[in-house]
């Protein structure tokens, strides 16, 4: 399955909630979820009863869209989550949170995960001092994430530097706001992962 490149707001309307796919725009009145309260496409007065399978599939797709992960990648992440000890659903969310593109987003270097992915692909981000251009790279506890030295003159860096003071960083990360560098302090617990995903439905989907 190819990566979705269509309108991000359409996905939010389909799921009926803000998935924070467009960064700062999601907090403005321009957000399509605020302007339109109906899913995209033609609508009828009557609705079919939603099946259990449909709910599970929708939750899995929502997680994929939030983290910008392809179906094949998502299956690999879930397989890894099952191999680990502990609840598979929580393990899955931890794996997704520890992706490099997500850590870049959580540190406030990008307005959205989509932008964070671009920053990584274009070689603007370093991991432990070395440029890493793989968005799915798994970050470990103690890793240092920072901007490449030569990227200080770019527009994304300047925008991040201007807005970094207003960014709220999760407790499992530390951020040096003056140098725009961060460190992973620990693997996030479920309480620290602020996403509106019911991971139990995803586990049920793959357990069929």
- Main sheet characteristics: 5 strands, antiparallel
The beta-strand count equals 5
Summarize model confidence as the mean pLDDT: 85
Termini gap: 21 Å
Name the helicity range: 40-55%
Describe how the helices and strands are arranged.
Elements: H1 8-15, H2 32-35, H3 52-67, H4 71-83, H5 88-97, H6 100-106, H7 113-121, E1 125-127, E2 130-131, E3 144-147, H8 155-163, E4 173-176, E5 181-184, H9 199-206
Antiparallel strand pairs: 1-2, 1-3, 3-5, 4-5
Helix pairs in contact: 3-9, 4-5, 5-9, 6-7
Descriptive notes:
With 208 residues, this protein is of the alpha+beta class. The protein contains 9 helices and 5 strands. It has a 5-stranded antiparallel β-sheet with strand order 2-1-3-5-4, covered by helices on one side. Strand 1 and strand 2 (130-131) form a beta hairpin. The two termini are 21 Å apart.
Task: Describe this protein with a few key phrases.
single chain; 208 residues; alpha+beta; five-stranded antiparallel beta sheet; 9 helices
Short characterization:
By secondary structure, the protein is α+β, with helices and mostly antiparallel strands.
